[in-house]
Amino acid sequence: MRRQGRLDLGRKRKTTQNAALAVLLVLGGLAIAGPSGLLAWSENLRLLDQREAQLEALQKERAALENKVQLLHPDHADPDMVGELLRSQLNVVHPDEVVIKLDD
Q1: Engineered SS bond to 97: which of 31, 81, 88, 93, CB 3.0-4.6 Å?
Q2: CA distance linking residue 96 with residue 100, whole number of Å
Q3: For residue 103, what is the DSSP state?
Q4: pLDDT for position 23
Q5: CA dist 19 → 11, 16, 22, 31 (Å)
Q6: pLDDT given for residue 2 in this prediction
Q7: pLDDT tens, per residue, the chain with 104 residues
Q8: Is 65 exposed, middle or buried (CB count within 10 Å of its CB: 0-12, 13-18, 19+)?
Q9: Rounded to whole angstroms, what are the CA distances from 20 to 5, 25, 27, 88?
């Protein structure tokens, strides 16, 4: 009986060790080839650079729009900006200006 108990204990240990080894191999594989592993590192850096460039472009666009909003503030609108918008959106011109139409 004692020998049978030792064999069962040995099998349990071996099974536990094999399971632990399998888990470690899976975790190691994910660390290398997973979505955030070593092989995906350069792709993630490239995407980060791309997103930073997009963010910078959007920040510049936002700054330009904020400037335009400040120039069009109802209390103190910039006359040049108002004139530009009138000309572009309402096709308004001064009497002394000449309009030249270009064919598209």
Answers
A1: 93
A2: 13
A3: -
A4: 95
A5: 12, 5, 5, 18
A6: 60
A7: 566 666 688 888 899 999 999 999 999 888 888 778 888 888 889 999 999 999 999 999 999 999 988 988 888 888 888 888 888 888 777 788 887 888 86
A8: exposed
A9: 22, 9, 11, 72
SS3 of 36, please? coil
Q: If you search the block for the tokens 């909003």, which residue do you land on? A: 69
b/e sequence 11-27, b meaning 16+ C-beta within 10 Å: eeeeeeeeeeeeeeeee
Token duo for residue 58: 């959007």
Encoded amino acid at 43, one letter: E
* Alpha helices in the chain, H assignment, sequence order: 2-33, 41-71, 79-90
Q: Is the dihedral of CA 22, 24, 30, 33 positive or negative?
A: negative
